[in-house]
Amino acid sequence: MLLVLCIDLDDDLGRKTGIDTPVIGRDAVVDAAVALASNDPEDSDVNVLFEGVHIYDDITDEPVEVAAVTGVDGSDVAANRAVGEEVDTVLASLAASEDVRALLVTDGAQDESVVPVIRSRVQIDGVRRVVVRQAQNLESMYYTIKQVLDDPETRGTILVPLGILLLIYPLTIAVEALGYPGSALGVMSGLLGLYILARGLGAEKILDEAVERTTAGLYAGRVTIITYVVAAALLAIGGVSGVQELERQTDPDALEVIASLVSGAIQWFAAAGITSSLGRVTDEYLDGSFRWRYLNAPFYVLSIALVLHAVSAFFLGVQDLEYLAIMLTGGTLLGLVSTLGFAVAEARFDRAEQHNQGPGGPSSE
């Protein structure tokens, strides 16, 4: 037996006419098509219903039935599920002893996305697409564009550069009105270059993960969010301080430029590193997963800061050798002592945990 199935994935038939679906039988499908055409003559599903009836009338060499099934408007997943349930209802109503095969009638690629759902229930002999002759591929093109725009990755890849290019002309007018001709093209070229570089390096994934971690931290009330904000402010202050220190030098060479930047910024950078490290240590302690090795980071930052301060001061010649030797030695010893001290504390902590947990095997008498 051949079942001619007219597919209406977005339920235009039910929404516009109020007819209950599925619609089974030639006369019922004709009545549904007339009702839909009366309410919306431009709806392409009218052609689908009449084409199903036309195929039904043409087949005379085997048993045939025609039915119309619909989905729901909105979600494709929900629509596919609804179509599957209505196909089950149609198959149950046939009660045919012979095998049932289906011929699908659709109005474009969007309705044909339900083919795998129907194939899981009944064998499909073919798909007949019905479109208006003067717009042969219009709906397929619309559905393809719609799918491309619904995909976040494709949307970002296509629309963002296109949007930047379209902004060049209005930005050029705005910049010229402000008296800076020629700057707009450079700004837009830079933005486009940064976007392409970020896409190539996968920076959007890193940014998405950072935003997700930040959001989760805000909801969980984590201390690190506050300390990271403070650390970012300290880093900004350190950068300004480094530039100011560089401006005080007269005709510096390459080493003096680096030393000036380090000398002006190192104390602020060290403060930022210690602040962020202490925030993490606090969160680990509040979560009950504190380990002594987590305290290494603030001391490492401080020891590195002392060493870099001594080296930069040496190249700038702002301190005597005795002071530089004390700073360099102090920073090195601080790093070594903190490493050894916290390693010993960690080992004792592990032994205490093992002792509290007791032996893992069964006890012997």
TrEMBL record:
Record Pfam families: DUF373 (PF04123)
Entry's transmembrane regions: 156-174, 180-198, 219-237, 257-278, 299-317, 323-345
InterPro entries: DUF373 (IPR007254)
Coiled coil: none
The entry's keywords: Membrane, Transmembrane, Transmembrane helix
Protein name in UniProt: DUF373 family protein
Lineage: Archaea, Methanobacteriati, Methanobacteriota, Stenosarchaea group, Halobacteria
